[in-house]
Fold each of these.
Amino acid sequence: MFLPASSRHSIGSSSALSSRSHKQLCRLALLLAFTFISSLHGEDEVPADRGDQEVQSSAEGPWGRLSYYHYYLEAPDYVVAQFPLPGTITKWVFNIGDYDKIEPLLAGAGMAPERIEQIILPRRVVKDERYVYLFPSAADIESLTPETRSAIYTELARNPANVFHYSPVFFLADSVQEWAKESGLPDETVSTIERLAYRSGDALVFSDIPLLLTHAQNVSEARLIMQKLTRVRTLMAELEISEDDSIPDLLNYWSTGLGLRRKEMEPLMKAIVNTKGVSHLDILHLLPPLPRKLLYTYPDMSYATEGRMPDCHWTSLNFFNIRPQQFLLDTHLATSLVKQDFEKVDPPFRYGDVLMFIEPDGKAVHSATYLADDIMFSKNGSNILAPWLLMRLQDLMKLYNVRPGQTRIEGFRHRKGAS
């Protein structure tokens, strides 16, 4: 089992000020912090406007009162441009040793016998030393029911050679129409995606990207489709603060009980209370410097100089580090350090805890940092098309198929913060 490695902490303290000067400095700190932090994000990485998104409230807890709304983030042009367009011919890849199992698999999934007969014709099957390649036609794919598609594609997803089944497009809102809203995709394209979507565990997903690209009128539209397929639902969250709230209690939670960044957060919180017409603080301001810098952005190729791109474990384990520790890209070193510096904890989780998504064989397929209620800081994958996000825990559970007998969640806390 892969476990998280240690984090580095820096403890701050606050000083007392006179009432008038304290209020003035609080207001100044609020303005400067908002201006500085907003400048950390480039224009193409700034979240979209709230628009008509519904604002929701979290459960109240030691973190205070949070409100949030969802929006969609998509890879900017300069990121998408680094990937060539995929081919438009659909292929299903099986291990060479499973050749005799293909026909029973397709039949058991409910595929029509006449379709199976055509797909496995010797002249339509390609073999090499490792794999068997099938090439279903557009009609074959369109003929599949959602249940049959789910059964076949779930099996294809076991083999990384089936790139689009192994890493499908997820629709966390359980609605293709909601996902596509204001995306600029042609209605015909959205209808095709909706028709070919299927269930993978509790998630609604889509894998038939080669077939979808055959509907593009030109190369520009094909590139537009590929860019829109990177759309991922994230959220923006705010902490509501009023004079009735206990600032010390809020600071205790958001500083992990150790006073981490307390001297930076206390003026901001007090400024909210003392400033007329202001009642909310973006959760971005409560994050440590590194995740604050990374949030809502995509990794650039400068990270590749380390030999590996940042993944979920690098992200969660570097949460409190001022500068990222690149050795956390090494699974063995990260595992050994967490065994030394972390301890397993049960819910309720606290700010800064690392939640590991662990498969039955003990492999940690994902990790994310717990913030509050069910809001997590996460990076879902190691490629440059995976941004750093805020996500609800229930959405991550869909992505990583958390259910009894499948993937489970275990929490880990640095020993300095455990009590």
Note: Residues 1-51 have pLDDT under 50 and may be disordered.
Amino acid sequence: MSDSAARQRPGLPMTSLQSPLRVTDSEAESEVPPPMETAAGSRPQWARRAAVGLMALALACSPTYVLRPHVGPFPTTALEILLLVAIPVGLYAFWRELPWANPYLLPGVLLLVAATLDTVVAPDRRAAIGLWKAYFIEPVLVGLIVAAMARDRNRARVLLAGLGAGGAVVALLNIVTVVRALLDHSFKLAQPPVAVYSYSNALPLFLEPLLAFALALAFFSEDRRERLLAAGFAGLAGVAIGLSFSRAGWAALVALVLLMALLTRWRWWLVGVTGVAAVALFAGSHRVRDRILVELNPTSPDNTLISRLSLWKSTLNMLRHQPIFGSGLAGFQSSILRYKDPTYHEDLVYPHNLVLNFWAETGLLGLAAFVWLVVQVLRVAQRGLKAGGWPRLMAIGAFGMVLSIFVHGLVDAPYFKNDLAVTFWALLGLQFGALAGRISR
């Protein structure tokens, strides 16, 4: 089917947060989102192409936040330097199409307010300001700009390709690193080797949301080239997550496959293959068995469940004393010291649980805002499923992203990392941009 569609009807309003989302029957029949009107005074095409290219480059380089240069006395990251170019150019090129009225506006603003308040009350305001701009201000602007860009399917493909390229590079580097360690017998199960990142769980945290969208394209796209490219990325990301030896990563991977199974006619085949593969890996690999069964041994020094329970107990004790603002942004590590459980001996910067993370870092207001935001994501995704075509693909990806975040977020810290925050909002922008021209009151 052609990638062009009928022009958007003049005066068609975008949804407000207070009004229910509704996709009209005629819009649901179309396979691709309508192209944007060329309003008087709109930016030249070269500026728009440059903006999309710069944003795709920044998204591809999301993992480069690990490079932390200084610009004069000010610390920054390679990712931030790219975003400080991509964001102004994107705002200039797509200013007239920015979807200010959208279902994510109020929860997003509320989250920004919460993060700002927790920056003010943070024990280290300098560190808090750094997280405030890297985890909230810049990512939200990225999501807004991407939503404007992604109303055109070809532009959305370029942005997805940027994310996929970044994910493919880190996945491949980590696969090579782990295989090399296995071959030269330097592999340590308790601390699996990792490339780019400083710890192995960071890899699946970054790849899982991308994998959700890749699986949606691989299973349901009507475009053969999209299916093949997405399937290739999904296979690479799946192997990398498997070799990360992250148990939460494994759980999220299985959850994503089962979600796709629910939506396809091959559901029982997928469930069967997944079950057989899981049993075969458990039975055939002593490393897989040891990695899982160690959590049933409370005396093992490699048991992370015991340490997590101690961490969560300490966190809840701190939050009972500081329920409104939590620890303040970037304040968990120091704030927990007065309230830590006697069995807590680590020195972690986050409580390694999605709910406790948002409560501790952004207070009750931030936690409420994030829950509201997720509800809005699911509502928009539900409408996308009914619309069919490209919006349906993006909706399935959004469902998978939320699922992976909550599964992995049971024991880790999704979102609270430069690449994760940028990717989260970029994918929300892609999801909303695909459906923006079809939503009415």
Note: The first strand starts at residue 22 and ends at 23.
